[in-house]
Amino acid sequence: MAAAPLTAPVTAPPAAAPRRPGSGARRGGLLRLPFYLLSLTMIAPFYWMLITVFKPVTELDRQPPSFVPEHPTLDNFYDPGYSPTQVNPGHLQGLFQRFQVDFGFGRFMFNSLVITITITVGSLLIASLAAYVITKHRVPGRRLIFLMIVASMMVPWQTTLVPNYVIMRNLGWLDTYQGYVIPALAKAFVLFFLVQFLHSIPDELIQAARVDGAGEWRIWWRIVLPLLRPALAAMSIFIVLAEWNNFLWPLILVQSDEMANIPVALARLNSYFTGAQNQGAIMAGGLLASLPSIAFFLAFQRYFTRGIVLSGLKG
Amino acid sequence: MATPAAVSRHRWRRHGTSYLMLLPFLALFAGFLVWPLANSLYLSFTKFDGVTAPEFAGLENFRRLLFDDDRFRHALGNTFLYVVASVGIGTLLSLGLALAFGGSGWPHRVMRTVFFLPSVTSSIALMLLWKWIFNPGDFGLANTVVGWFGGRAVEWLATPGLTIPILVLMSVWGGMGYGMVLYVAGLGSIPQEYYEAARIDGATPWQQFRRVTLPLLRPVTTYVVVTGLIGAFQVFEAVYIVFRGTNNIGGVLDSGLMIVPYLYDQGFTHFKLGYASAIAWVLFLIIFAISMVNLRIGRALKEL
């Protein structure tokens, strides 16, 4: 189930099955011990989050804390015992009761999903078009364009934060989906990666299609995109995770509750509600934010590790 | 198709399509990256509140940042301390993890997944989790552990001396799995023959590590360190979620104030957009310098 490094390399030098050099199993075991212990510190916070989600309000600030919820409950998601008019000790609003928007927290999950999918598909389409031209068409200026795009990868994107905010405001795009999506579409690192990948694909395939009379758009759609599939898969994982978890830009862009994505909604929960009794609902939100991206990772782990390695070691 | 005119017309048609295909990417790239970048440089020389037109102020913003602004100096100091500690410790642990769990058997693969998990978990969720773990109450997880060893509850997030160590801890915990994946790939690409040759020459395991593994991993190390540095300089969420107080973004006594949180504070809390742009350009210059050093190191290594 785990990170198999480069079992089927795409363009990088093939990696042999990673074996630890020159160490007998026994001594290695002893050296590994501290790292096995370290893994407990990786698990513990996740476990703490998980049990917090299922603890009733009265169990959240108990001393000593319970390490297995004694009265497991789903109240932190939705608490039927809560009433805004009648104080009912031991009952608080669940996660889905805390925002005055239709579908509650579900609205933010919907927003995040729509935004993530749109940006992923859109950015891959436009980057693959550009990469195709840069690698396979002899148009004047393509080197200069590519150089500029590569150079832009050295720019911290926060440098564009203020002007982009002003642009969004002038366009009336604050608090809109297009404000999330349009500025995020041109991704230099995606273009760079696709160009590297396309260089390794022989021109003959495309020449043959041209001789057969296929137009450029058709070649892009029917030949280039299918050839790019492994590279697109690797990039899409990066983009999906980055956009699903994107925070600083949405924080500046979004004003209403309706247009928040999950991270912004979580940050608002964090500033509206303090105190231990609220942590169950907040952790429930954290769990709903994390489960999809963890599941996505586990499902596409092979592509993911390969993508990291390819973009890292070749870049 | 044989006449020169037809050829050139044909070529123009081809190029027309090419430019049309480049257009979506280039237009968005120009509109939301190149133009804002130039604009941000211009704004950094102005006084701009976002409402009235920017007012040219020359180098005033930069003069103030570098000589007059104690909070900025504090933010820079904090950031450098945090960057050096988190990248240093994180890189060492990444390498250690890759050496420990680089194998292909299932225990190693499970371990790699465990250490990589934070990289794919919502970072805001993780920050909220840390805030909850470091709850000042004696029921917080951190204080419970302290209690097991007989200690008294600690005000983790309100003790200025603990802020940077906690930020470093969160960063190392969350980031070492990523470096590990890169190191595992790097280790896998070292030919086994080198180790066999070293063994035949009587090299001890430590000598093999020192003379074969480390030098051959140098490109990976450079990459892990440089991307780590760049990422660490841009830290924002940890400060914003875990340490921000009601009216102060940097935590108690600004003990967690860093460059990007300060940029956000000046630009989007106080709406000093010109000043915030100047901060953004200081960040730009730092990161640009790291990238340049990286290029030069890379070239120097190739010439060796």
From TrEMBL, chain A:
Belongs to the binding-protein-dependent transport system permease family. CDD domains: TM_PBP2 (cd06261). This is Sugar ABC transporter permease. Residues 1-24 are annotated as: Disordered. The keyword Cell membrane applies. PROSITE patterns: ABC_TM1. InterPro entries: MetI-like, MetI-like_sf. It is a multi-pass membrane protein. The chain crosses the membrane at residues 35-54, 108-132, 144-168, 180-198, 219-241, 280-300. Coiled coil: none annotated. It is found in: Cell membrane. Residues 109-300 form the ABC transmembrane type-1 domain. Its main location: membrane. It comes from Microbispora amethystogenes. It comes from the Bacteria. Keywords: Cell membrane, Membrane, Transmembrane, Transmembrane helix, Transport.
UniProtKB/TrEMBL annotation, chain B:
This is Sugar ABC transporter permease. The chain crosses the membrane at residues 19-38, 80-102, 114-133, 162-185, 220-243, 273-295. Residues 76-294 form the ABC transmembrane type-1 domain. It comes from the Bacteria. The keyword Iron-sulfur does not apply. It is a multi-pass membrane protein. Pfam families: BPD_transp_1. Belongs to the binding-protein-dependent transport system permease family. It is found in: Cell membrane. The lineage of its organism: Bacteria, Bacillati, Actinomycetota, Actinomycetes, Streptosporangiales. Keywords: Cell membrane, Membrane, Transmembrane, Transmembrane helix, Transport.
